[in-house]
Amino acid sequence: MTSTGKRYLVTGGAGxxxxxxxxxxxxxxHRVTVLDDLSTGFREAVPAGAEFxxxxxxxxxxxxxxxxxxxxxxxxxxxxxxxxxDPAKYWSNNxxxxxxxxxxxxxxxxxxLVFSSTAAVYGEPATTPIREDAATAPTNPYGATKxxxxxxxxxxxxxxGLAAVSLRYFNVAGAHGAYGERHEPESHLIPLVLRTAxxxxxxISVFGTDYPTPDGTCVRDYIHVDDLAEAHLLALTAxxxxxxxxxxxxxxxxxxxxxxxETARKVTGRDIPETAAGRRxxxxxxxxxxxxxxxxxxxxxxxxxxxxGIIADAWTFARQQESAE
Length: 325
Ligand SMILES: NC(=O)c1ccc[n+]([C@@H]2O[C@H](COP(=O)([O-])OP(=O)(O)OC[C@H]3O[C@@H](n4cnc5c(N)ncnc54)[C@H](O)[C@@H]3O)[C@@H](O)[C@H]2O)c1
Description:
The chain contains 9 helices and 13 strands. Helix 4 links the parallel strand 5 and strand 6. The radius of gyration is 19 Å and the shape is globular. It has a domain at 7-174 and 222-250: 3-Layer(aba) Sandwich (Rossmann fold), CATH 3.40.50. By secondary structure, the protein is α/β, with parallel strands linked by helices. Helix 1 crosses helix 6 (225-238), helix 3 (87-108) runs parallel beside helix 4 and helix 5 runs parallel beside helix 7 (257-268). The chain is 37% helix and 19% strand. It has a 7-stranded parallel β-sheet, with helices on both faces. Strands 7, 9, 11 and 13 form a 4-stranded mixed β-sheet that branches. The protein has a two-stranded parallel sheet with strand order 8-12. The structure holds nicotinamide-adenine-dinucleotide (NAD). It holds the Pfam family Epimerase. Its EC number is 5.1.3.2. Homodimer. It comes from Streptomyces cheonanensis. It catalyses: UDP-alpha-D-glucose = UDP-alpha-D-galactose.
C-alpha cells in the first residue's frame, strides 16, 4: 500500500473510475486534487475532501506545481461508437490531452504517472486469456488513441525518466457507495441491464446468440471498480523511474451476456425482457484478461470477483440515482 500523506492530481476525477479511485486515495490518507472539465463527469461525483478544479487536461500546466507526487490520468473521451463517427475528437482529446499533460508534468518536475489504458488496444485477440504481450490491433479509433498514448508514455519514460504504469482495464463494473457508473449515452452491459430492470428501457438487446461460447452469447471479463481502484494505489508504489509498466486488469474469469442478465434478474427480483439481435461488427466472442502480471508485479489481489456481488453494488447505486432524480 502507498505511504500516507502524498499529494495526487486525478484528471477525470468527476467520472466513474476517477471518482472511485479518488475516494480510495482519500481513505488511504492522501491529498487529492481533481482536474475535470465535466464534459462527461459530474461535480457531485467528486468525493468530499478532494479539491476540485474545473478545467481541461490540455490546460494542466496552469494548475500543476512541483508539490504533487504523481498524476493519475483518467480524463478521456471513451465512447467506442462516437470514436468511429467523430475520430478527430478522440485524437484531439485523448492524444492531444496526454501530450499537454506530459509536457506540464515535465515542466513541474512531477515524475510519476498512472494511466487508464484499455483492453480495446488488443482488438480481436488471437488467444485468450489476453496477456500484455499479445498483439495490439485496435479495431476502433478509441482503442487506437489509447494505444498511441501508451506508446507516448513508453518514450517519455525512456527519454525523461518518467515512472509510469498503464493499467489496461477490461469491463469495469459495480459501484463504490455513492460513486458509480453514469455514462450518457450508456453503452456498458450491466448499467443497461439495470436500466431495463428499472423500466427505463423496454428490453435489453443481446447482440449475437450464435457465438462459439457455452450459451452462444459473448463472454466478457467484469472487474469490480473497487478492485480496480486498489490496483491504482499499488501502481503508484510500483512505478520506477525510466520504466513503463503495462498491466492488464481483469478477473481472468468471463461471464456471458446471458449470465449477466440472468444474475441481474436474481439480484433485482425484477423482470428483464431481452431481445435477440444480430452480431455487431468487431465484437469478439470472448474477451478475458490474463492479470497474472498485475498479481505478480503489483501484488494485486482482486477480492470482489463474484458477479452477483458486482451487480448488487451497481443496483444499489442505480436505485440511489433513481430516487435522487
Ligand atoms: N469504464 C470502463 O469500463 C473503462 C474500460 C477501459 C478503460 N477505461 C478508461 O478509464 C478512464 C475513465 O473512464 P470512465 O468510465 O470513468 O469515464 P467517464 O466518462 O465517467 O470519466 C471521464 C472523466 O474525464 C473527464 N474529461 C474528459 N476529457 C477531459 C479533458 N480534456 N479535461 C478534463 N477532464 C476531461 C470527463 O468529464 C469525465 O469526468 C477513461 O480514460 C477510459 O478510457 C474505462
